[in-house]
Amino acid sequence: MPQSFDPDFGLTADDYGRHRAGFPPELLIRLTARGVGLPGQTVLDVGTGTGSLARLFAQAGADVTGIDPAEPLLGQARELDRAAGVKIDYRTGTAEDTGMPDRSFDVVSAGQCWHWFDAPKAGIEIRRLLRPGGRVVIAHFDWLPLPGNLITATEELITRYNPAWSMGGGTGLYPRWLTDLATAGFTGIETFSFDLDVPYTPQAWIGRIRASAGVGASLPDEAVNRFSDELSRVIADRFPGDVLHLPHRTWAVVAQPND
User: What is the pLDDT of residues 46-90, one digit of tens each?
Assistant: First the structure.
């Protein structure tokens, strides 16, 4: 993506906390079958944002720490944790330099954020943090632009307002992350994916898009407001309805250090 594109998700923390759908519980079922997210495990969730992936692990009984550079997102995460009845230790920091002790975690996870990291440095840091037998998991939960659907129309609108945004047209699959992990010295690399529809009201979808990198995290307020109004008109004219069922794909890779 262009070097000039440098989103700040702290700018959109409220929409991020209110409108971004969290990872589906089905992800945890598949991860626990692979030894990730078990009760009593210590988990570090890097790039935790509002704690979507971290909360899944905490609800399963893991001891979870979340790290993110954007304190406003961590504030939203704490509010969401209180509503969910879980306790997670949040700290400001980065995946490349967590400041956590060597070999102190059974699992290090990264949800919806690996593309923002310096992958070689993050890989070295994660290996340092994992105990023997530990595992790393990288997970994504992405909308799917299909011909003629609202997501495709939304991406076209984002690109018109923000030409620097180059993250559209995704498939929800990330083969490059496998190379990142192998290069960093991880083995036993395994991936899985599954699709599901996510229900959004029109206003919730507009809020979800405001919380994205290409809109609220990188455009000035006036442009965000104009974008929101135009997306509202697109929905009313072309995709009317009280509930929008939008296709999403969950994808994850699990691996372990080779030492």
Answer: 999 999 999 999 999 999 999 999 998 899 899 999 999 999 999
Contact 107, 137 (CB under 8 A): yes
| Integer Cα distance of 58 and 252 in angstroms | 18
Q: Are 232 and 206 in contact (CB under 8 A)?
A: yes
pLDDT at res. 19: 47
Instruction: Please provide the DSSP assignment of the chain as one string.
Output: --TT----GGGGHHHHHHHSPPPPHHHHHHHHTTT-S-TT-EEEEET-TTTHHHHHHHHTT-EEEEEES-HHHHHHHHHHHHHHT---EEEE--SS---PPTT-EEEEEEES-GGGS-HHHHHHHHHHHEEEEEEEEEEEEEE---TTSHHHHHHHHHHHH-TT----S--S--HHHHHHHHHTTEEEEEEEEEEEEEEE-HHHHHHHHHTSTTTTTTS-HHHHHHHHHHHHHHHHHHS-SS-EEEEEEEEEEEEEE--
130-143/42-46 β-pairing? unpaired
Q: Contact, 5 vs 165, CB < 8 A?
A: yes
- The pairing of strands 105-111 and 130-143 is parallel
Sketch out the chain's domains with CATH numbers. Answer: 9-143+169-197+248-257 (3.40.50.150)
* d(C-alpha 74, C-alpha 35), whole Å: 27
Per-residue pLDDT at 251: 98
Structure tokens at 90: 């949040």
Q: C-alpha dihedral over 60, 64, 69, 71, to 10 degrees?
A: 80
Q: Tell me what pLDDT residue 212 has.
A: 85
Model pTM score: 0.89
